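During the no-cost extension, the postdoctoral fellow (Dr. R.K.) reprocessed legacy sequence entries with the updated structure-token encoder. One reprocessed record is reproduced below for audit purposes.
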Amino acid sequence: MKAAILLVGTELLNGATVDTNSIYIAEELNKYGIEIEYKLIARDVIGEIKKSLTFLRKNVDLIITTGGLGPTDDDITKDAIAKFLKKKLIIEEKDKNELLKKYKKVKITRSNLKEVEKPEGAIMFSNDVGMAPAVYIDGIVSFPGFPNELKNMFPKFLKYYAKENNLKSQIYIKDIITYGIGESILENKVKDLFTEDGIFYEFLVKDYGTLIRLQTDSKNKKNVEKIVKKLYNRISDYIIGEDTDRIEASICKILRDNKLLISTAESCTGGMIASKLIGVPGISETYKEGIVCYSNETKIEKLGVKAKTLEKFGAVSEEVAREMLLGLNTEVAISTTGIAGPDGGTKEKPVGLVYIGIKVGNDIQIFRKELNGDRNKIRQRATMHALYNLLKILSKRYGK
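Re-encoded structure tokens follow.
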């Protein structure tokens, strides 16, 4: 079975918005062996959307659109689909009532009702995190452009579509998530393990690590599991999780299981570590506080860093990272201080230099990193290095 993705939105063509929806859609369809043959982008123009639909209808079985389901004048995806299929747009009473419940604290207008319009004969999939539901008719399904709304409704649609077309998940995908090792070095370490016919592998660089993805027919699942075991035997120091695991969730679990509290003191990362940890459900049991101490004065006042330490070694130093840790009174703590750039670097302390402090009990370790990238990338990488090293220390001491 073949599918196509049609992204609707002028902002996707003028650089104002970056598409991430198609990556998610492709990965979900892949599980059912549905191949994406085309990905098109159309401006918010009915004629251009219809032209795209005409082309795709001739070439694929399923067309998936995202974007253009909102209440404003440029949200015209359903109008275009209705015209393409020669259907009237209707609003059913039950759909209207459902929308009114969501808007119960806000005065609703005619433009808001657009969100529950649908071509006659279409079915809808409820939107639990937004307003406009997904709409499916005659091999065309439409979702809002917001990624969280797409991810809420796409599994519902896929379950329906698979049942309607008697599809079964044929593809088995296993992701091993690594961190702390370059992609090419990683490949050289493990590529000799992938010799079995019918099991395909690739390396995918994500912002949360580098994935080793194994993909095969479901009947080969046991053979994949054997390869995974070999991967752990060879590169366990770099493996931080599998599939939907994320490093911050793994840290949170160890902390909760061992009734440990954690605090963070961040200079160059500016709260990124705290944000990662706070994003984990249940973190309130173990996360005590986070201090963003960007200035020297704050480091002195909030954390007790000595003025003479700052004067002698500078804010970006092992000594300051250590004293920042000592200013936190939880058993587990993280500190960061560095030069994110683009200015402020010197020959001795270049842009990208970061000191990461980690305290677990009475054990304090300071890591010196020289990171590449722009300001935001350096901060992101410093955050991931801090979490990676904390996970390794916690895992060694307490087990996963």
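The CA atoms of residues 111 and 345 lie 53 Å apart. The chain has a mean pLDDT of 95. The remaining legacy entries will be reprocessed before the final report is submitted.
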